[in-house]
């Protein structure tokens, strides 16, 4: 993790998927070296050190969903996954082992394809226990109000308190 390389995508609302009105989705390509018998543990340790305790190991749901009351970090430790972010008309990104994707509250996501034995670590900022909003049935205005109230996290999940997340999110607040 010598230099922060970040790819940002600001996503407009799309139908029942609100996305975040000001903060972009962030992709950190090859942020974590994949090595050892348990590569997921490297993501868990990194996220925990940066106040985003790991909440689960699994994959990505194959339907449009978002979290109205919390941000999410996804660390890919095995396989490959293509995710549609932002709802229909959004952006499809393929994540590979070592990649981290950080979604601000409200960002829709849906797995559209995967290869190999997919493994993802999911994490949320300290104290966050996000809801699961299914785009087709979520109450849009209530979700938008909740998204607007979600504060900046204390630290970037990959680079800590001074990480590039704040260049993209705090300046856009």
Short description, anyone?
This protein has about 170 residues and is of the alpha+beta class. Helices cover about 15% and strands about 30% of the residues.
SSE topology:
Layout: E1 7-9, E2 25-28, H1 40-49, E3 54-58, E4 65-66, E5 72-85, E6 91-95, E7 100-103, E8 109-123, E9 133-134, H2 140-149, H3 165-169
Antiparallel strand pairs: 1-2, 2-7, 3-8, 4-9, 5-6, 5-7, 5-8
Could you describe the 3D structure shown?
The model has no long low-confidence stretch (mean pLDDT 93). The strands form two sheets. Strands 1, 2, 3, 5, 6, 7 and 8 form a seven-stranded antiparallel sheet that branches. A two-stranded antiparallel sheet has the order 4-9. The protein has a single domain (7-159), classed as Jelly Rolls (Sandwich), CATH 2.60.120.10. The protein is of the alpha+beta class and 173 residues long. The protein has helices at residues 40-49, 140-149, 165-169; strands at residues 7-9, 25-28, 54-58, 65-66, 72-85, 91-95, 100-103, 109-123, 133-134. 14% of the residues lie in helices and 31% in strands.
- Helical content, roughly? 10-25%
Termini Cα gap: 27 Å
Class inferred from helices and paired strands: alpha+beta
Average pLDDT for all residues: 93
The count of β-strands is: 9
CATH superfamily caption: Jelly Rolls
Low-pLDDT stretches are none
Individual helix count: 3
Number of domains: 1
| Major β-sheet annotation | 7 strands, antiparallel
Radius of gyration: 15 Å
Identify the CATH class: Mainly Beta
CATH topology: Jelly Rolls
The CATH architecture term is Sandwich
Share in β-strands: 25-35%
The geometry reads as: globular
């Amino acid at each position: 993790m010598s230099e922060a390389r970040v790819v940002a995508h600001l996503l407009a609302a799309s139908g029942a998927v609100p996305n975040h009105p000001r903060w972009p989705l962030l992709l950190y390509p090859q942020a974590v070296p994949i090595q050892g018998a348990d590569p997921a543990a490297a993501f868990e340790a990194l996220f925990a050190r940066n106040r985003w305790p790991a909440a689960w190991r699994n994959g990505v749901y194959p339907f449009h969903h978002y979290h109205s009351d919390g941000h999410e970090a996804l660390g890919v430790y095995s396989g490959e996954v293509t995710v549609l972010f932002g709802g229909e008309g959004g952006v499809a990104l393929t994540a590979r082992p070592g990649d981290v994707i950080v979604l601000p509250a409200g960002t829709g996501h849906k797995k559209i394809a995967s290869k190999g034995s997919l493994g993802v670590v999911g994490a949320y900022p300290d104290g966050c226990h996000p809801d699961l909003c299914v785009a087709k049935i979520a109450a849009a205005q209530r979700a938008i109000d909740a998204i607007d109230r979600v504060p900046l996290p204390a630290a970037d999940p990959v680079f800590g308190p001074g990480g590039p997340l704040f260049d993209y999110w705090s300046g856009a607040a």
